């Protein structure tokens, strides 16, 4: 073999070909991010528009910049991100975990363009590595159905309770 011209090039290529399977198994499926955020975007009128999304593999972070019709929609989106769960299968067993381990709102602001006011936002998210892992199969984002207004979450229930039913049932007749 040593008498073959340029044998070292061929041996180096063979060695690299052997490591392709190993490297391929370590890659992540970052294309899933589009499906995830499509599911995470609340229904109108609370929907948001995302202008940019930066995903960093090394520190499992996503930074998004966007806007919504008002701060209530931004707040609703924040609660959606905080409460989103990831369900997936690993070796035939279903797992569930928070999709994001940290949700931080940054730089909220209002802007008016051509008479239209928008609430601008930036979120810094830390995602669960399983969300993009090749070993994760059948990933699904589960968004719980919650009332997410600050008044509902933080109002003292003793002071602001539900109204009592009228006497005699629903129609008020005895």
Largest sheet: 4 strands, antiparallel
Oligomer description: single chain
SSE pattern: HHEEHEEEEEH
Give helix % range: 25-40%
Amount of beta strand: 35-45%
The global form is elongated
Counting DSSP E segments of at least 2 residues, the number of strands comes to 7
**Spatial separation of the terminal alpha carbons:** 103 Å
Q: Which secondary-structure class do the elements indicate?
A: alpha+beta
Return residue spans where pLDDT drops below 50 for at least 5 consecutive residues. none
- Average pLDDT value? 81
Strand order of the largest sheet: 1-2-6-5
The Cα radius of gyration reads 25 Å
Helix count equals: 4
Question: Could you describe the 3D structure shown?
Answer:
The chain has 174 residues and is an alpha+beta fold. Helices cover 27% and strands 35% of the residues. It is built from four helices and seven strands, in the order H-H-E-E-H-E-E-E-E-E-H. Strands 1-2-6-5 form a four-stranded antiparallel beta sheet, with helices on one face. Strand 3 (85-90) and strand 4 form a beta hairpin.
């Amino acid at each position: 073999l040593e008498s073959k011209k340029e044998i070292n090039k061929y041996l180096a290529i063979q060695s690299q070909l052997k490591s392709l399977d190993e490297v391929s198994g370590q890659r992540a499926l970052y294309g899933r991010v589009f499906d995830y955020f499509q599911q995470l975007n609340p229904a109108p009128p609370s929907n948001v528009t995302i202008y940019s999304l930066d995903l960093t593999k090394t520190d499992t972070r996503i930074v998004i910049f966007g806007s919504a019709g008002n701060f209530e929609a931004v707040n609703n989106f924040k609660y959606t991100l905080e409460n989103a769960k990831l369900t997936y299968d690993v070796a035939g067993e279903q797992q569930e975990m928070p999709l994001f381990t940290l949700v931080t709102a940054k730089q909220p602001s209002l802007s008016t363009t051509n008479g239209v006011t928008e609430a601008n936002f930036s979120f810094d998210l830390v995602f669960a590595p399983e969300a993009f892992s090749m070993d994760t199969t059948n990933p699904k984002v589960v968004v719980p159905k919650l009332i997410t207004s600050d008044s509902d979450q933080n109002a003292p229930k003793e002071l602001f309770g539900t109204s009592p039913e009228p006497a005699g049932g629903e129609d008020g007749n005895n």
